[in-house]
Batch of 2 targets.
Target 1
Amino acid sequence: MKFEDAIADLIADAVINLPRDVEKALQKAMEVEEEPAKTQLKAILENVRLAREQKKPMCQDTGTPIFYVEMGINFPFKHDIKDSIIEGVRKATKLVPLRPNAVDVLTGKNSGDNTGLFIPYINWEITDGDDCIITVMPKGGGSENMSTLKMLKPGVGLKGVKKFVLEWMVEAAGNPCPPTVVGVGIGGGADIAMKLAKKALLRKVGERHPNKEIAEMEEELLNAINSTGIGAMGLGGKITVLDVHIEIAHRHPASLPVAIAVQCWANRRKSIRIDKEGKIWNID
Amino acid sequence: MEYRLKLPVSEKDILKIKAGDIIYIDGLVVTARDEAHKKAIELYDAGHELPVNFSEVAVFHCGPIIKRNEEWEIIAAGPTTSSRMEIFEYDFIKRFRTRIIIGKGGMGKRTTEACKEFKAVYAAFTGGAGVLAANAIKRVRDVFWLEELGMPEALWVFEVENFGPLTVTIDSHGRNLTEEVKERARKNAEKITF
């Protein structure tokens, strides 16, 4: 199979089939909720089932194509990956089909095939080994509009960080299609915090950070946001977020950057591995 | 309460609907996002005729995926974030007297005022439920402004059957459910200490 076809299939898989961990978390939320949130969660789960059955994208916003590539230093097909990703996006746009979501900032013109300046966006990482792992995150616009960054005064400490995240998610309310997954990046610098926040969304729902202190902060924020009562679609309820994932970087003494990346319930992400023979494997 | 409504609806039908009710609708639904709202208002104010009678249909904040086969095939058509249309909705309802607005995420003060003044409701379709919505759309009857505005922003005229569940969050009596939830959530957040 050509790499570009594998990429097109990967995108199709991502926009059609919601990861099982997310579906399970939604199911659990539906079981504990009361009306009117219950109706919303039932509709979401029914929609997830129909998408899988009819092989249609679960949401009409098939997102901005964001890729994460972990490229082995000895992977033999390094040269082919970038072009294959771009071509794969074009193919998927036609075949699935995806909604064309790449608009020229100056002219307002939609490119029609989901490609353009810096789009698809590819995050590159060089790793040891001879294989290549490619992850796609089709990122919806409604939840992306609720992402933010604030450069806090270091004096407010982690208490201030938590307060900022909580207050922000209350103001976001129903806009990002809750129940959401929230990625938080703390430290580094403005760009680093945002990258960490977004990458944190790739973690499975329910998976805690290996650092115990961060894991506790994740739980604390998860419970705090859910206790506000925003609920599914902002209509009121117990479950506003399915999970909170935090990543950190060392910070400058004068800075405390906090980035928040919000992902809608359609928490789409899928990965493949290409081995040194060029064989393609689906990975969970 | 739960209602099944056939479009066009009367003022009497609208008055009985309360925030929190669930409605399902049959009839014509027309998609309109930011650009379409803006253009419709501009054309009306310049004295031009519009391709759709907005008083008889439900307006749906939606940018669908539609495939052109021999007929239009609706792939996915869930709601988009309604708060972007807040800047237009009062003027839109005032001019066109649309009685049902459908979207997601809720709308603000001005839309609540318009719903009260001109007897309309705003109802939320579950965000992201694009296939569920597509299954309730029986056919694309027409499309306008496609060339100029592109697929997501065009006016798509859908024939719908049992379209829902739609949760009414703004009624014609001045209630706004999502704003009430947000107000309560702010108070709850204030009580949390880290």
Note: Residues 2-191 of chain B form a domain with the fumarase fold (CATH 3.20.130.10).
Target 2
Amino acid sequence: MNEDRIFAIPLMGQSLDFKISRLFARSPFYLIFNTRNHNIQFIKNEFIDDKIQSGKTISKFLISQKVNIFCACEIGFNVQKIAEKNKVQLIILAEQSEFTGEELLNIIKNKNNN
Amino acid sequence: MARPINPRRVFSRPKVKGFIPMGFYSSDLDTIYLTVEEYESIRLKDYMFLSQLESSEHMGISRPTLTRIYDKARKKIAEALCEGKQILIQGGNVIYLEEWYLCSSCGSKFNSMNNKENPTKCPLCGDTKVEQIDS
């Protein structure tokens, strides 16, 4: 498969040592990971304080950054709707998982090396 | 001849098949059957807090139809709560917008970007122990 797989992972801070945020749309930062070139990028959530529809806005923004996989513990209705429309894959992590950015990245990297 | 009923659009399958009452007066013999479209109407209106119009658009039905389905669902749930009956979620005329899969290795759930093909590998850990989440 030649298509780039670009993950958006919600993180509590701007480093791989921070844990994954439980909420997707209200996460302070996003880790963007490209599985083809292993490129890592941190994006600050500028819409975190939006009173309404922050999920819609941040999803559209992430999709404009060519993200095609949203990975989170909880994903709200607006994010689901935008993802469905734009053919973005959703991955909901197991409820008890409390990965740091680095731990989750290692899982994804191991998968792509196999 | 009556017009055939259009299938209602449902985002994903319910997490559980039903609910069992507890306690002395509970009765697992009496069962209330909640259809998947009734469950979806409750989920959209009372859990996602969508308006009637938004919910009806989401399910691909008119607003009066949604109201009818929703009222029926609430009556059934009220009956089950007050009379201690078990609820089974099954049946109904629905099409699922997305199929969800569970990876038994890492425990994550995921949907398929291409609904025509069943995924054979977990997109996160790459394990092949993947099964479709069924209602």
Note: Residues 101-113 of chain A form the longest helix (13 residues).
